[in-house]
Amino acid sequence: MHKTAIFFISLFLLIYQSPEPAYSNQNTGRGDYPDRLFFENPRKKSVSFNFKLINNLIVIPVSINESDKLHFIVDTGVNTTLITELAIGDSLALQSVRDVRIQGLGEGEPIDAYHSTGNTLEFSGITGDNQEVYVLKEDIFELSSYMGMDINGIFGFNIFRDFIVEINYSRSRLTLHNPELYRYSWWKRTFWNSKPINVVNNKPYVSSSVRKEDGTVVPVRLLIDTGASHSVWLDESSHPEIEAPENSETTLLGAGLSGQVFGRKGRVDALKFGEFELNDVIVSYPDSASIASAIQVDGRNGSMGADVLNRFNVILDYGNEQITFRRNLRYLRPFRHDMSGMTITAPMRDFPLYMVSYVRPGSPAERAGIQEGDQITSVGGSSVSNFTLQELQSLFKAGDGRLVQIEISRDGERMQINLRLERFI
Q1: Average pLDDT, the chain
Q2: Distance of alpha carbon 353 from the chain centroid
Q3: CA distance 195 to 360
Q4: DSSP per-residue codes, 215-268
Q5: What does the alpha-carbon distance between residue 401 and residue 397 come to, in Å, rounded to a whole number?
Q6: Of the candidates 39, 161, 316, 414, which lies 20 to 30 Å from 197 by C-alpha distance?
Q7: 241 within 8 A of 218, measured Cβ to Cβ
């Protein structure tokens, strides 16, 4: 099992699980696995439903063993279902539970989790028995705080293994097709682009290339990662031509199961994906020590995250090892990053309490005197109760040089701060 990603849109979380998951082989054909997912109505050719797109990530409601609705991120990069958090009031009965230790990326120690088999999973007209579930004993990711809504976990591989998956990022709609009955329409065969993918150990990889500022074109093998909110990350140790640009900045990139992941963040001149070329793309370059386990497992150069994928409508077909895609209205949107240097989280569900959880050294936020633990109470004279977390985060991603008036509360004292945004990459 390998990772998810979230932390303000640019943060990614990386997970590597040491026990081998079931069905972790190179055969991508769709067989009669005991943990297969099915349409509840066997006469259905497809099932379509809406999802929430939060920080570029696909979130859908799921029930496990007839539980209340839990909210999961749909992630091509995980082999099994991972429950990261259960809020007070959530009821969940798991089958055949045993203790396990999971090793994650970062510099810390393995963490404790429960491993459960024989569970029933249901969502939007889909059901499946004999489902494997891992439950973290400690909520180390705090996904709900970073997403601004209840997030209980991550899952995905069974969906992509058992169906042809069509992701309409434009309309926030997911369609699961019966692979035995699905036929690509004339429209999709003619006006969409198709590209081969390589599905290894249940994860999809695609060949792309990046063009550096000096014009050098570097071929790269990237994990297609719907569960990563960033654009692209690249491992500098995986190719002699992959290196962070001189104007990149050192920053906190994310947090893995075993600790924080630091690295550099910069831009490449272009990312070539099929017939399309995306310009001025933000790239993260994690410290190689933090991601060594992932690179050793699959030999990739990095990953292509949802900040690239959501500029297209996408069909992922694991059985035929193919991705089919067409650009949407997001395609020409510039790649944006936070210009304040602070990370804002919402530690209380359904309540507009917004806290500063990280301040980048040397950033505009640090120079303005903002500290970790500060509570943001208003922005531009407007109470933060008027904003969702995602809307609040977006305010700091545009307007290089713009002056933003912020009111914070620190130890019961209200303070007015003038924060000048600054594009740092």
Answers
A1: 86
A2: 23
A3: 39
A4: S-EEEEEEEE-TT--SSEEE-GGG-TT----TT-EEEEEEEETTEEEEEEEEEE
A5: 11
A6: 39
A7: yes
Question: CA–CA separation, 398 vs 332, rounded Å?
Answer: 16
Q: What is the DSSP string of 2-58?
A: EEE--STTT--EEEE-SSPPTT-SS-------TT-EEESSTT-SEEEEE-EEETTEE
**Tokens representing 21?**
């998951």
Contacts of 178 (CB under 8 A, 6+ apart): 39, 44, 45, 46, 163, 164
For the segment 141-162, the average pLDDT, to the nearest whole number, is 90
Residue 93: pLDDT band (50, 70, 90) is confident
Measure the CA–CA gap between 69 and 121, rounded to whole angstroms: 11
**Lowest mean pLDDT, pick from 62-66, 140-144, 180-184, 363-367:** 140-144
* CA atoms of 140 and 127, how far apart (whole Å): 29
For 217, other C-beta atoms within 10 Å of its C-beta total 12
Structure confidence at residue 251 (pLDDT): 83
Could you tell me the two tokens for 422? 């600054």
C-alpha distances out from residue 423 to 248, 249, 286, 358, Å = 11, 11, 20, 18
First to last CA, the chain: 32
Statement: residue 275 has pLDDT above 60? yes
pLDDT higher than 50, residue 243: yes
- CB of 378 within 8 A of CB of 415? no
Which SS3 state, helix, strand or coil, does residue 364 take? helix
Contacts of 296 (CB under 8 A, 6+ apart): none
Q: What is the pLDDT of residue 289?
A: 61
SS3 210: strand
Q: 115: which 2 tokens?
A: 């491993």
Quick one: pLDDT at residue 12?
Answer: 37
Going by C-alpha positions, the residue among 144, 146, 139, 174 that lies closest to residue 160 is: 174
246/26: higher pLDDT: 246
Percent of the chain scored above 90 by pLDDT?
Answer: 66
How many Cβ atoms from other residues are within 10 Å of residue 120's Cβ?
15
> Can you give the pLDDT at residue 202?
86
Can you say whether the dihedral through the CA atoms of 382, 384, 388, 389 is positive or negative?
positive
